[in-house]
Sequence to fold (344 residues):
Amino acid sequence: MAPPLLLRHPSSREHDTGTHPERPARIVAVERALAERDWLGWDVRESPAAEREVVCAVHPEAYVDSVEAVSAAGGGALDADTVMSEGSYRAALHAAGGAAALVDALLDGDGPRVGASLHRPPGHHALPTRAMGFCLFNNVAVAARRALDRWGAERVLILDWDVHHGNGTNDIFHRDPTVLYVSIHESPLYPGTGPAGDAGSGPGEGYTVNLPVPAGSGDAVWCSLVEHVVAPLGLEYRPGLLLISAGFDAHVRDPLAGCRVTREGYAQMAASMRTLGEELDVPVGVVLEGGYDLVALAESTVVTLEVLGAEHPEDRPPVALHPHATQAAGRLAERWPLVGVVAT
Ligand SMILES: [Zn+2]
Fold:
């Protein structure tokens, strides 16, 4: 079987945000930690720049033109916390292109079963026509669309474990039952969206699952939600691809949020997703989002990839059912009976 695939590109360092938490040092730290471990034996490739049509499956052409124009003019601020430099458009094209290339590899019959697209800028706050929250193009949405449009996947599950709600991804697939968007996020926190009651709309009603958690939540809450809510959701939904919108800012060291997840917590969440992928016999792709403490970001990324890519799964103790997961399962029981079992 092909080794896991890691997509990266030097342009991620050319997206110059000045004195900003979403800074080039993030990708430097991640790549250094992986290089020290011989890239975990993964197949490391440079991501292609996304073709226009790939980005335009999510964002209208006029928006893509406007982002390109800001870089061409030397940079500028798109909103209060989203800034661009001359190199930002190119970096964003490779971030989206990496996410799409990841899906191409994972869904191409003989390809790897696990992969990661590690770039900046991140993407999950980006709306179709608006940059937001350090994000220009919505990379994980580009990946999901690629799976549906190019590879004929009937359903894709996105687990967004970034500590912030992925409002962009939430909105892009709000009316779409072919993408089950599941987000665990601290609430209240930026961007203020993603209450438990926001469950999608129209034909997509029920296919958005928001799992807000209070500040201070650590491994017990986060791991229980992944193991006891997200995994049964996946078994019931039966997607053809699992994507993890993987921010690492729920880490206890992160300066932008108040959750308390540890390296071991990320290892456990990755293990639950690995098992889900094996049970469904579908590939798992990781798309990097946030994470602003360099040590936490690097060690959490490494352990996530280690667990997902290991030839044999490690033995782990069962994940305790936390009352927060029981409550969430209870809310979802009517539409998702398999999830509801957890609450009974
Ligand atoms: Zn975040």
About this structure: The CA atoms of residues 144 and 285 lie 10 Å apart. The radius of gyration is 18 Å. The pocket of zinc ion is lined by residues 162-164, 247, 249, 289-290 (CB under 6 Å). The chain is about 40% helix and 15% strand.
